């Protein structure tokens, strides 16, 4: 999952949502997925430059332009995918991490960076449903706030059979919280951050709980990354199928992709790229 555009707390711009990602779901191999992701990323840069937007990058490699509206972020990403000669929804899907806890206050969701509008939990679920209808969005991480468990239950009930709903802030890689989520039917995928829970033992337990419940597993980087590439090995070793580690840009991000390439080369014909299967498609 390549994070190619920043907003929210990760950028000083007009976009409320924190991360916009692309997932090369139609690729036959990791090497080909990396090519598709890199070409889409550079095509997006060209699109943004042509529109007169900034192409400066954030701490995870994504672009952070001042856009006219939140939805324009998705629209320009789709243009980038197409400019790279790929088909949105077939070759490349979109995944979001709005990080909704960052704009949740007094029981409502405030789009303070764009239009200043306020939204209830029910309205936010309807908002995401509308985006999913319009665009090839296959996954949403933290679409609601970490404390909004009732809202998460509604979102899961309404959208859980169509797209991947990933919990990060709400689950924090904590086995006990993931168990509660499974019991209460909250989300259908877990973001895995080893240094969030603190030990490899607890991380593997969190993955085991998620797998037993048929939840998706997304191993993830952090903003303050180093060139250490262990999470690439962890992703393959646990058969997670998904790794979120930034744009194909900046050395500490590329290090993980290079390690995946080395693993794929070493495995040879035994290597299997998960592709659309991790989304149940």
Give the averaged pLDDT, no decimals.
95
How many DSSP E strands? 11
End-to-end distance, in Å? Answer: 16 Å
Low-confidence segments, given as residue ranges, are none
- Gyration radius, in Å: 18 Å
Helical residue percent band: 25-40%
Strand order of the largest sheet: 1-2-3-7-8-9-10-11
The gross shape turns out to be globular
Number of helices: 9
- Main pleated-sheet profile: 8 strands, mixed
Structural class of the secondary structure composition?
Answer: alpha/beta
Q: Write down the secondary-structure element order.
A: EEHHEEEEHEHEHEHHEHEH
Strand content: 5-15%
Characterization of the model:
The chain has helices spanning 30-50, 70-83, 121-134, 149-159, 175-184, 194-197, 200-212, 230-237, 251-267; strands spanning 2-6, 19-23, 93-97, 104-105, 108-110, 118-119, 137-141, 164-167, 189-192, 216-220, 243-244. The chain has 281 residues and is α/β, with parallel strands linked by helices. Strands 1-2-3-7-8-9-10-11 form an eight-stranded mixed beta sheet. A three-stranded antiparallel beta sheet has the order 4-5-6. The longest helix has 21 residues, at 30-50. It is globular and about 50 Å long. It starts with a strand and ends in a 14-residue tail after the last helix. The mean pLDDT is 95.
């Amino acid at each position: 999952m390549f994070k190619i555009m920043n907003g929210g707390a990760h950028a000083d711009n007009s976009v409320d949502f924190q991360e916009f990602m692309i997932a090369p779901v139609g690729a036959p191999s990791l090497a080909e997925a990396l090519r598709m992701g890199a070409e889409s990323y550079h095509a997006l840069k060209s699109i943004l430059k042509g529109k007169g937007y900034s192409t400066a990058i954030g701490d995870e490699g994504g672009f952070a332009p001042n856009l006219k509206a939140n939805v324009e972020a998705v629209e320009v990403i789709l243009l980038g995918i197409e400019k790279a000669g790929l088909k949105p929804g077939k070759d490349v899907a979109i995944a979001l991490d709005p990080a909704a806890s960052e704009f949740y206050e007094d029981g409502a969701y405030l789009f303070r960076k764009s239009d200043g509008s306020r939204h209830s939990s029910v309205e936010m679920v309807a908002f995401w449903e509308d985006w999913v209808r319009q665009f090839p969005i296959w996954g949403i991480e933290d679409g609601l706030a970490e404390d909004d468990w009732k809202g998460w239950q509604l979102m899961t009930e309404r959208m859980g059979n169509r797209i991947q709903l990933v919990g990060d802030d709400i689950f924090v890689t904590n086995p006990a919280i993931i168990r509660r989520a499974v019991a209460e039917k909250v989300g259908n995928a877990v973001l895995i951050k080893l240094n969030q829970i603190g030990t490899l033992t607890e991380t593997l337990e969190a993955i085991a709980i998620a797998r037993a419940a048929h939840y998706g597993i997304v191993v993830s980087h952090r903003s303050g990354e180093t060139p250490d590439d262990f999470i690439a090995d962890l992703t393959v070793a646990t058969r997670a199928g998904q790794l979120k580690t930034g744009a194909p840009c900046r050395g500490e991000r590329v290090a993980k992709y290079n390690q995946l390439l080395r693993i794929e080369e070493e495995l040879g014909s035994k290597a299997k790229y998960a592709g659309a299967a991790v989304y149940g498609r």
